[in-house]
Every structure is written in structure tokens, then in C-alpha cells.
Amino acid sequence: MAATLIATAPTGSVASSPSPTALPPARPVERAGLVVLLLGTAIAYLWHITVNGMGNNFYAGATWAGSRDWKALLFGSLDPSNFITVDKPPVSQWVMGLSGQLFGFSSASMLVPQALMAVGAVGLTYAAVTRATLSRGAGLLAGLALAATPVVALMFRFNNPDAVLVLLMTAGGYCTIRALERADRRWLMLAGVALGFAFLAKLLEGLMVLPALGVTYLIVAPTSLRNRLWHLVGAAAALVVSAGWYVLLTILWPESSRPYLAGSTDNSFMDSVLGYNGFGRFLGNTPATGQIALPSGYQTPPGLLQSFNDFGSPGLGRLFVGESGFEISWLVPAALLSFVVVLVSRWSAPRTDQIRGAALVFGLWLITMGGAFSAMKAIEHSYYTLTLAPAAAGMVAVGVHELWRRRDELFGKLGAAALILVMGLWALVVLQRNSDWLPWLRWTVAVVAVVAALGVLATAIPVPSAWRTARTRVTAILLVIGVLAGLGGSTAYAAATLPQAHTGRSPVVGPAKPVETGIAALIHRQTQNFADGGAFTNPQLVTMLMSSTTRWSAAVDRGSIAAALELASRTPVIAIGGFAAEDPAPTLEEFQHIVADHELTYYLVQEMQLPASWKVGGQPAPTSPSTPEKPWQVTGKPDIATWVSHHYTATHIGNIAVYDLTPHPN
Q1: Which DSSP string do the residues of 256-269 spell out, in sequence order?
Q2: 84 forms bridges with which residues in the sheet?
Q3: 541-580 burial, b for 16+ CB within 10 Å, e for fewer?
């Protein structure tokens, strides 16, 4: 890396050393560097990937459904009999489900495509920075920084939609940088296509990079303002077509022969876009689905259960604290500093300057999406910050390249020292939050960064002309050492993330966490077991579902529980209410029709005996000692639960009430 940077980056100010107009042919060391980067990413991300098992059961269930049925694959259904979809569009399910159709459904066939997407994202980030800076060394640094980001190591080995989302967003950024070179409308339209499919991966989140790309093209593209505006209109049209065909499909396809579109109140795609998965996240009116709504008269003891929102309180500091700090913040301060440094350094450059253009792409991307995440008020996970990773990695690489180019000037030395200090000292701060893990690492990173920064500053002292070549080499070596030290904390935390098993709805980065103990930990594990469906996968119950012959073996509230049952029994299960049991599907009347048509065998509901101390005020209600309170049925659709309990008799397997719906109702 050091040799490549030294060999490929020119030195001097913008005026005295204009950038070359074409990327020079790759030297053998540069080709080898790219091979090591991509092959190393593939090996690291694919190694023992099945340790994550089914990852997030919710999406794994949909992947299994897509591997069994083409309609389920097309719509992203949660079950192969197509009752309801997952609460996101189906692009990620297309990839994993098609892999299941080709190779058979398994943990490997589901997760390997995710890891290969990491290689693609790293390659695109390398290519984007290389094209903009005309330096393969800068491109290698960008790719390395991305691969060594903990949230990237986490989510590109997991089965959530975020991996394909970020790959498509990175493709959009790369195509925009290609379009900037010659105002090429074809590349800009390809960027629109990439973002259109990003929209079909995770709705509005896929479009949050759009302002950064559009503004950059409007400012930098080397053509008239009129042409720039028309090119943007063409790219917008490409985006609409690449996303709109699926929206139109959901409208034209008869509702009676497709699954209910989860996350909507009216079985429409756009309702999910504008509500649950859209503005509801910013306005805070999306249901907090991670905590179970207790019955009237009960309250959860404060602080006992972990909230679904693990992203911290809204505000500018949200990206830097808690789990988000471990997942993404490592390079964010340095990326913001790099953005300012490049804009100042390239201030006198022509409007069409490509390096400033790349800085605008990555810098505005980081600021726009970081600001949006900081403002959101509802349903957040720290792993959402994966969308910031390519921007942070690319921006730091562009900043290092610019400072490298001006390393013989006072501006370059001051900027390089500041960047090294920010990277190293922020890594110290983040590592200090997990002080029991490798305590020597944080001090090593900090000390090396401080020494390198001071050394770079020391090279500003005038020396005889005969020593200037040696001084330039020393500055280069110190800059490389300082930058690599700054990446040390992030790289170590990403490496610690890779071998850990990650499952559930909200995985976290870093080394293995200590086992929780005490009553609070016990209740938390029991609640999490319910949320992920583990309480329902009793072998006796699974065997009963496997012996059913109806269209759906069972119906149960919440998509994650239905998915867990499907994965255990390999039978279709109705997810009543979808992911959060909030969707109006099925209605009581629709459920009654399904039962009457003999399409469903069992209705399942978990029963829990709540502690008396959870009563409002902490005091048990006066009851007869001989009349224990009835257990609470954990259901999001009480009208369906009430109808079933009035007309059918339950048997119990553990704490699961099982209603056989095949006889005539009482």
C-alpha cells in the first residue's frame, strides 16, 4: 500500500501540478494490490459464514419461501403459499431466494451471496476513488477502509436487505463519478437504474443518497447547465422506470392472487413507502415493535427489557455513541475533516475538477444520510449505518490522496497531521468504551498516531536542499504509518466481528459479549425467545405441523414467529398481522373464511403468567387464593384469538396453546 501510494500520487498545489487526464496503466504491484484486496475480502467474509445459521429468521423464512415458489420469490412472500410479504420490497429476496432455487435452501446458499456483495461493494469503491483521483493507491485505501469497517463485516455476512441496498448505492456513486468525467448521460442513467433498484431493496433509504449524486453532477459535470439539467431528468426517468415497473406490477396484479403487501394499511405498495417504512420513521409514529404490549393493568419495570430502538436518542451525536459508535463512527470524524480539507485545497480548481467532484459525492452522501439517521424518531437499528460506510471510506481515501499530493507543502503537512490525529485519537475513544478487550490496542493506535503526526509536523522545519528528497520520503512513510494506525481500531473490531455467530433482529459488532446473569437477563432472554419464535419450535409442535396437509399448517401472530416455525417444520405458516402484528391481514372475516375452506390446520398462541409485581403500582390485585389468574395470551389480534378460543378447544404444548381448526367450530 505504501509503495503504491508513493509511486502513483503527484505532489504540488492545484495550480502548479494539474491532475493528469487519463488513468495510467496499472503496474504489477498495483494489480497485485487489487487482487489481494478483493481476494482477501472474499476469504475473510466467506470463511465459516454458516456460523450465523439462519441469521434473521424473518428474512430466512422468506428466502425459504422464495426457494420453493416463483410467486413468493417475485413478491418477497414470507410463506410459499403467499399469504403476506416481508415488510420490505423483494430485491434482496430475489438474490437469496434464487440462490436457494439453484443450489437448494441452506444457510450457505442464503449467506454466500451476501458476502460476495461485499466484494462487489469494495471493488466499486476502489474503482470510484481510482477513477476520480487517478490513483490506484487511493482506490486501494478506500477499498481497505470499507472492508475493515465493523458494520460492513457484520451485515455482509447476514441476511437482511442492507447488503444489496449498499451495493446498489455504491454502484450509483460509481456510475455518477464515471458520468462526471465527460458529462456522460448514459453513466448517469445507469446511476438512476442502480438507485431505482435500491428503492426496491429498502424503499426511501435507497434514495437518500440521491441528493448528493444529483447536486454533484449539477455542479461538476463538464457541459452546459442546460445539458446538465436534461441529463438529470433522463437519470430521474431511468430511476422511475427501474423502480416503477414493480410498483405498477403490484397495482395491476389482482389482490386476490398475490400476497398482502406488508407494512401497509391498505395492501398497497405506496402506503408502505409513505407510512410505516417512510415518513413514519422520521415523525415517530411507527409502532415500536420490539416490546410486547402488556395487557391493561400491567406495566414493564423500567429498564428491564431492551427496546427495539438500539440507535440512541435523536441528535447530532447519535452516530458516535453506543452501538453505532462501534459499528460506523471510526472513520466518520476523519471523513468530515477530509471533506473540508479537500474543498479548501481544491478551492481554486476549475468547476469540473474531478477530485472535488468525488469529495462532493462522498461528503454530501455522508452528511445527508448521517443527518437523516440523526433526525429519525422511530424504529432504528444501529446496523442501518451500513449505508454510511462507502461514503466514509471513500471520503477518507480522497482526503489522504489530496494531502499526499501536497505533502511537501505546509498545508499538506498540517492537514495530514490533523487527519492522523483525528483517526488515531477517535479510535482510542471508541476502544476505551470496551476497555476489557485488548487494552494494549487502543494505546498502541493512539501512540503511533501521535508520533506519526508529530513527525509529519517536524518535517515542516527547513532543511538543506540536499536533504529535501529524504524529507519527502520520511513524510510519506509517516503519513502511511499514521493512516494505517488510524485504521487499526476499526480493522481489529471488524476482525473480532467476523467469527462471532450473529442471529436475531439486531446483531451487534465486536468480540463476544459476556453472558448476562440475574433475573433481568432471564426475562430478557425469555422475551427475546418469544420475539424470535424460539418458544414455538418445540419438537412435538413441529412434528404436528409437519403432518398437516392443508395449504397452511398453522397461523400465529408476528412474522418472526411464523418464519421460525416454517424453518423448523418446512411448512407454510400464516403470519397474522405481518412482521409486527400491526398489518390488517387477515381480518376476522378473512380468517373465518380460511378456516371454513379447510386451508388451515392449527392456530397457535403463546400464554404467559405475568408476575404480580408487574401490576400497575407494583401491588397484586386482590384475588381468591383458590382462583389463580388466567394466563395472558400474547396476541396482536385479540378479535381472532377470542373467536378461536370461543369455538375451539386448546391443548397445550409447553406454554403454547394449540387449537386444532379442522373440526367444525363449537
Answers
A1: GGS-B-TT-SSS-H
A2: 260
A3: bbebbeebebbbbbbbbbbbbbbbbbbbbebbbbbbbbbb
Q: Cα 480 from chain centroid?
A: 30
Residue 301 has pLDDT above 70, yes or no: no
User: What average pLDDT does the chain have?
Assistant: 88
Question: Which three cell numbers mark 424?
Answer: 488515531
The dihedral sign for the CA sequence 33, 36, 39, 44? negative
Q: Smallest Cα–Cα separation from 413: which of 464, 360, 472, 463?
A: 472
Give 241's contacts (C-beta < 8 A, 6+ positions apart).
196
pLDDT at 305: 46
Over residues 90-147, the pLDDT tens digits come to 999 999 999 999 999 999 999 999 999 999 999 999 999 999 999 999 999 999 999 9
* CA dist., res. 282 & res. 262, Å (int): 19
Contact indicator for 61, 558 with CB cutoff of 8 Å = no
C-alpha cell at 305: 427489557
Place of cell 380460511: 594
136's grid cell: 490506484
- The residue whose grid cell reads 408502505 is 272
Total Cβ atoms within 10 A of residue 135: 30
Distance CA 122, CA 246 (A): 28
Q: Which residues contact 228 (CB under 8 A, 6 or more apart)?
A: 183, 217, 218, 221
Q: pLDDT tens across 594-637, in order? A: 999 999 999 999 887 666 666 666 555 555 444 556 677 778 88
Residue type, 200: L
The single-letter code of the amino acid at 34 is L
Q: Which amino acid is at 356?
A: R
DSSP 17-82: SPPPSSPPPPPHHHHHHHHHHHHHHHHHHHTTGGGGTTSSHHHHHHHHHHHH-HHHHHHTBSSTT-
Q: How far apart are CA 370 and CA 480, in angstroms?
A: 28
Pair 555, 581: CB distance under 8 Å: no
H/E run at residue 108: helix 107-133
Q: What is the pLDDT of residue 504?
A: 86
| H or E element in which residue 460 lies | none
Compare 290 and 501 and report the one with higher pLDDT.
501
pTM of the model: 0.91
